[in-house]
Amino acid sequence: MRERSRAIGVWLLALAALMVGQVLLGGITRLTGSGLSITEWRPVTGAVPPLTAEAWEDAFAAYRRIPQFERVNPHFTLADFKRIYFWEWLHRLWGRLLALCFLAPLPVLWRRGLLRRRLPGLAALLALGASQGLLGWFMVASGLTERAYVSHMRLALHLGAAVILLGTTLWLALGELAPAPSGRRARAPRVLLALLGIQLVYGAFMAGLHAAPAAPSWPTINGRWLPRETFASVEALTDDPLTVHVVHRYLAYLLCGLVVAEWLVRRPGTPPPVRHAPLIAVAVQVALGAVTVLAASAPARFLPLALAHQLGAIALFLALLVLAYFADAAPASWRQNPGKLLATQSRSSSRSGHCSSTASVAAAIARR
Ligand code: HEM
Description:
flat
């Protein structure tokens, strides 16, 4: 039986919130074309931006040597460069802040004896977080020598790893704050999460290949439901902007249909917000996708919409993850009134600072 800690749950939730902020900053960095402005990787000293005119000149000179400057931004002045530098610097700084917020409380948790049983989970977070930094640099490096933009495959890897890190953090947080899993594995939310995973990869391909302008129309795709020039080869599935665009759209409709089906058959015992959230998130996300393609040729409108669409994807992921957790968690008696039980449990855990999950669930059921 594992003791749970509300404080650790809240700490993990705060880390997850910071990660959502990091995904948002990553989106801004990409959409403002800032991702290649810092051409080196200095995990610690890079926190300090150039501070003198000479240091700025050096950083700008390094940017002028990469293909993006030559092919996309030859008109850039130092002021333009400083603007794009800011977003990439902030994105990296946020990553450092996340690392600090993760590492700083560990000695205290260790002293209080709260760390040992959680070592596997926290070690997994550490490994995922560290590899996310490496993957970020792996992605940036793909745009420094031959290409004018980063590789869309590596962008997908970077986004995918961020989503896995976020999901693991939230899952561990739920393990501290919500009723413990009953041991069964609900299949439907996992199938939806797997399909969403593929859709997120295709979303990253859309972004990395700049595929929105390939078909800036909705509901049809350039006036057709299936443009003739798509699916010309196996490589087209990952490299051709129009084929990627078609796959992304139809996967969205499939996912939407399956989320609706899951919602219709889900047992009423699931807490209403948990049950309804994926449905609302997927509907909003499909609508955002549609308005984003329609704005593909208007940069001023495209940026905020594409950003909202990226956040929408994260919201849908989180909603499905929470659904999966609660679908696993619900023992038969708890399904009757989960809201009341959660409230009882959180009161008892805040009184004692921690709680034993199974014992408190049983006690709460007995009290009712
Ligand atoms: C379940 C539904 C959907 C999900 C989960 C989803 C997810 C995503 C994700 C994760 C991205 C990448 C964002 C980034 O890395 O910045 C993306 C990009 C994109 N998606 Fe979707 N999407 C969905 C539906 C749609 C639909 C229905 C359309 C169009 C009708 C669409 C159009 C686009 C476009 C145009 C982009 C590229 C935006 C850019 O260049 O930044 N999406 N999507």
